[in-house]
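Tutorial sheet, problem 5. The two components below are modelled jointly, 445 residues in total.
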Amino acid sequence: MDASLLTVQPAAPEPIYRQIVEQLRRLIAGGQLVAGELLPSVREVAGFHAINPMTVSRAYSLAESEGLLERLRGKGMVVAATRRSGRPRLRGKGMVVAATRRSGQTESQRLALLEPQLAALARHAGELELPAEAVLDRLGRLMRNRG
Amino acid sequence: MNAMLHEANAVDVEPLVARGLTHCYEGSNVLCGVDLALEPGSVLGLIGRNGAGKSTLIRAMLGLLEPLSGVAFVFGEPALKLSDAVKARLAYVPQQPEALAWLTAQQMLDYVGRFYPRWDAGFARNTLERWKIQPNKLLAKLSPGERQRVDLIRALASQPELLVLDEPAAALDPVARRELLREVALRAGESGTTVLFSSHIVSDLERVASQIAFLHQGRLLLHCGVDEAKERYARLWLPATLGTAAPAQALSRRRHDDGSLSLVVQRDAHDQWPEAANLPGARVDALGLEDLFVEIAE
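Model answer (structure tokens):
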């Protein structure tokens, strides 16, 4: 992986170390980063983006504690090998491809990808003073209609 | 031998400390009892509006100005009586460089370099070229921006343990600015250089700073980690009907024309926002550092 794959927005309300972890999560979930792939060193990321190396270390440590990355002795950080979350469902051909691409991800990892949207939804619902049941009911129906 | 003693000290002595610094110009206070300490290896971004007292604070901390009251220490020595040994570990780039204007850039760097035990002549030469400065032009004939760039090269080439930059970004174009930030960030991370960096361009500080301090009207409003500032503070907006529920504790409080209220609030020890944030109709917005500063400095 190359440091240029990451983008950093210093002025965003989200701290830079969280931006990096979030992007790693997405790149791994999206299949752009595969298990065992070597990450750029802290120095490379810090140098490329002109950010404090401590910020990058903090991001890598958090990603490690979340099971996204693994520290290999003498090598650096690599994308962690992940457990399979059940077997891919073999319905249509399209499904197989999609399922294989996502198969490295546990359900909770995939769910974590939705976290920003869910947080925004929860906030909007709160502002509109909507009860959770009504929102969940509607959301459930939307998801079932797609399938 | 002396140098070795200093290396050993550097581990525990705070590179830069201010205690109760107070100063005034022509009867108006510019510093009102500022306490500030830099941890070794940290990069402190000093944010403040023009005229907030940033340059005065920096000059007082380095002993270039005698404050009305209070004291400052550089590597444990009183700032007003620094030894040559401590001066050699320190590099300062003022907003307006003034010295040695009768020399060319190259002559100045060669001359100054002799005073620094760890002078990196190769870095000075390469950076002059990269930052497009003619080495044989008189400093007096360079533009203010070019003068400041030469001064930055001088500061970085001395490989200081403490680097103090007063508004360095103003003189640099975006590419050179990014290069300077990269230098600062990597030196802090790898050589353990301690950096104090003042600017009103907040996004520059956000890239490289590990700590920030907001200076406003001669007082420090906030001094904490950059990530902490973003995660611990937010703007709480309350509609006019909830005005009475507003928490008593807030860093700033602003009433809008329609009676609604904006407050800058802080998470408590259990990471919770004040209770009013959970009321229907209330809204909590995360803030970037610039927004946070504008909210509390108004």
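Marking note: The radius of gyration of chain B is 22 Å. Full credit if you identified this.
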